[in-house]
Amino acid sequence: MMSTTADISHELADFLRTRRKRLAPDDVELRTGGRTRRTPGLRREEVAELAGVSVDYVIRLEQARGLRPSPGVLEALANALRLTDDERAYLFDLARQRPTGRRRAARPDPGPLGQLVHDLEPLPAMLLNHRLDIITWNDAMSRLVMVDLDSLPAEHRNVMWLCVLQLPHRDFYLEREQVIRQGIADLRAAWASRTDDPEMATLIDELTSQSAEFARLWDEHDVRVNGRGRKRLRHPEAGRIDIDFDALTPLDDRDQRLVVYRAADDASQTALDTIRGSTAQTP
Q1: Interstrand relation of 239-248 and 125-128 (parallel, antiparallel or unpaired)
Q2: DSSP 3-63
Q3: Is the N end or the C end of the chain the one with fewer CB atoms within 10 Å?
């Protein structure tokens, strides 16, 4: 029986070989000089030329001879073989490396999840990106947090900005520091793989310069992605509300997450019903 390492090495070799054979010289704008090919696909020499590595290196990779390519070499191979985003991620996973630089382009609109957010009424829900920007939200979420998100500038529709700098929110969370600490740990995890994101850099600079609390907690370097948890709120109209939340990430866009709030107990559900009822009766 092969070891796991051997299995991965052979899978990496097979993957590179099949990706090479599916390409034609015209796909990568290589000149063939009119020569007829006996077998389909690119030659190893052509892949080596496109990736800027030696032919011997490509041969050893395709023969599963124990190489562990660096992120730079993997990036070059991915470009040479015209890999899709999913194939590129698979290549890096096989090599036990993390991608650097280029990432999947951000989706310019909420996509199907945007409609799902509204379909989840009366559950408060919102769609976030990797910066914790609020992409879209439903009425139940607006009523719960008591913020007119439509009236805010786009750069301020951000979970961390609202929590740290929006003054009416200072007493909204009973465990304010814990909520901020968790948000920072989540934001730092996203920042590590997106250090070239100018909007994230601007957000962190603004929060650090305007909030000593944020600056202190940011310097603790905590890292954690929170997929679920509980928040205890003090709502000005409905009183104490305990909320359980789940953050769900779609398979086709890891930069988005759907956050859904649910009442943690009967008293909290009654409070949410009160908020919904009082708002519905307001002209």
Answers
A1: unpaired
A2: -HHHHHHHHHHHHHHHHHHT--GGGGT---TTPPPSSSS--HHHHHHHHTS-HHHHHHHHT
A3: C
For 200-263, give the DSSP string. Answer: HHHHHHHHHHH-HHHHHHHTT------SEEEEEEEETTTEEEEEEEEEE--TT-TT-EEEEEEE
> Distance from CA of residue 268 to its chain's centroid?
31
Q: pTM for the full model?
A: 0.71
Nearest to 260, CA basis, from 224, 229, 225, 234: 229
The CATH label, of 1.20.1050.10, 3.30.450.180, 3.30.499.10, 1.10.287.110, for the domain at 112-280 is 3.30.450.180
**Partners of residue 247 on adjacent β-strands:** 259
Q: What is the Cα–Cα distance from 177 to 231, expressed in whole angstroms?
A: 12
In the chain, residues under CATH classification 1.10.260.40 are: 4-94
pLDDT tens column, 179-205: 999 999 999 988 877 777 889 989 999
Q: Among residues 177, 90, 162, 100, which one has the least CA distance to residue 131?
A: 162
43's CB contacts (< 8 A; 6+ apart) are none
Please name which of 93, 232, 226, 215 lies closest in space to residue 171, comparing C-alpha atoms: 232
Confidence band for 167, pLDDT divided at 50, 70 and 90: low
What are the structure tokens assigned to 231, written together? 């928040």
How far the first Cα of the chain sits from its last, in Å, is 72
CA dist 228 and 113 (Å) reads 19
Burial class of residue 208 in the structure, from the number of CB atoms within 10 Å of its CB (0-12 exposed, 13-18 middle, 19+ buried): middle
Phi, psi of 236 (to 5 degrees): -60, -30
